[in-house]
Write a structure and sequence with these properties.
globular; transmembrane helix; ion transport; Na+/H+ antiporter like fold; antiport; Cation/H_exchanger_TM; 78% helix; mainly alpha
């Protein structure tokens, strides 16, 4: 299939699935679309037992999408920028300490807790994984997915302070999580990759404490700095245009995202963090009236439409990935997947609880903050994309890659379908 055929198919599925969800399921968009895609995947897999060519054809089409490249290389920058545009900057600055601590300390805590629990629990279920690969799984599953979380926030009413904590953490811990993942991947590759290690993340060879700190600092600080520069320049340019040419404003924002994303990749800084910071600079929320008018309403309508369309396509792709991931099923898969879900929830609870308990000495948090942050920490396409990216590393044993991928998929599906559907109950008094 050509690129045009693939795009046409995705847009067709997004339109049909959205119509089914609106008229029949009536679920939040993210949850409904993924549920329909999962049901379609199951139907295709069942049909494949009678007509094997059906499953083979569907699998061929799904693999042509290259989920990792589509999400991390194309969609993610647009989605993060669109999400950050609607965040209230004033509220975010008020909650900056909580957001920063949860996005960094919380993500690091969760990574090591998940890795350690997996290392000791999975062997009991018959799956032995070296500790570094357990940490790798912890790194890719610990960040909450901003795309899924922001879609959830739109559906359920929350207090503004709690809403900004969840939204801010999910936007920033995504970039932090990717950096942690790349760092651990570099260490694993230098240890197990042999000759391949020379071509690892950013060409890392021997990994030392200083090189890890340098990589982390370059990615995080560089991404934030680049986003601030691009955001400031973009905001001044939009203010100069002053809504006289709405089509030019849209083109400017598109250019900022596309050029900024490509430049971040070339100079090895965090593109996701750059997009978030840039979106916060250009967004209107939380500013005085004069500054708020710099970015016209037409720009927000355009990005809202693009955000909704890409969200629909993303979660349909996540659901359809089951067709490919079904190849990793084994008798112990569901036991391991279930254990992974419990481990991730436990790590999320501890990773949220400890920082909040520590910060509670100096500030007051809303009731049920810990439980809402724990249960509302949805995982999504980013975790699946990072797990799929491991397939290209030949030095990693197939059973490790398959275990990480299947467990990741179980955690993502559980978080969106089960946690997402039951969030409303937690928010009731």
């Amino acid at each position: 299939m050509s690129i045009l055929d693939l795009i046409t198919l995705l847009i067709f599925l997004a339109a049909v699935f959205t119509l089914i969800n609106i008229t029949v399921l009536k679920l939040p968009s993210t949850i409904g679309l993924m549920a329909i895609a999962l049901m379609m995947s199951v139907a295709i897999l069942l049909a494949g037992y009678i007509f094997p060519s059906v499953t083979r054809g569907a699998e061929h089409i799904i693999t042509e999408f290259d989920f990792k490249e589509v999400l991390l290389g194309v969609m993610l920058n647009f989605l993060l920028f669109a999400g950050a545009l609607s965040v209230d900057l004033k509220k975010l600055l008020e909650e900056r300490v909580a957001v920063l601590v949860l996005a960094t300390v919380g993500t690091l805590l969760s990574t090591f807790i998940v890795g350690t629990l997996v290392y000791y629990i999975f062997p009991v279920l018959g799956v032995e994984i070296d500790y570094i690969f357990c940490l790798l799984f912890g790194a890719l599953i610990s960040p909450t997915d901003p795309i899924a979380v922001l879609a959830l926030i739109k559906k359920f009413g929350m207090s503004k302070n709690l809403e900004i904590k969840i939204a801010g953490e999910s936007l920033f811990n995504d970039g932090v999580g990717v950096v942690i993942f790349l760092t651990i991947l570099g260490i694993a590759q230098s240890t197990y990759g042999g000759a391949e290690a020379a071509h690892g993340a950013h060409g890392a060879g021997e990994i030392t404490a200083s090189s890890v700190a340098l990589l982390f600092g370059q990615e995080v600080v560089g991404g934030v700095l680049m986003g601030a520069i691009f955001g400031f320049l973009g905001f001044r340019l939009l203010n100069f245009i002053d809504n006289d040419h709405v089509e030019l404003e849209v083109l400017v924002t598109l250019t900022l995202v596309m050029v900024g994303g490509r430049l971040a990749e070339l100079i090895h800084v965090s593109g996701p963090l750059a997009m978030v910071v840039m979106g916060l600079f250009i967004g209107n929320e939380g500013r005085d009236e004069k500054l708020a008018n710099a970015t016209g309403e037409y720009v927000f309508k355009f990005w809202h439409l693009l955000d909704e369309a890409l969200n629909a396509i993303l979660f349909i792709l996540v659901g359809l990935e089951m067709i490919v991931i079904a190849n990793t099923f084994s008798p112990t898969s569901f036991l391991v997947g279930g254990a992974g879900i419990l481990i991730v929830l436990t790590a999320r609870f501890i990773g949220v609880s400890l920082p909040i308990k520590a910060m509670s000495i100096f500030r007051t948090f809303e009731p049920k903050t810990i439980i809402i942050l724990t249960w509302g920490g949805l995982r999504g396409g980013i975790s699946v994309a990072l797990a799929l990216s491991l397939a290209e590393f030949t030095w990693m044993e197939p059973v490790i890659k398959e275990t990480i991928l299947f467990t990741t998929y179980c955690c993502v599906v559980f978080s969106i379908l089960v946690q997402g559907l039951t969030m409303g109950f937690l928010l009731k008094d």
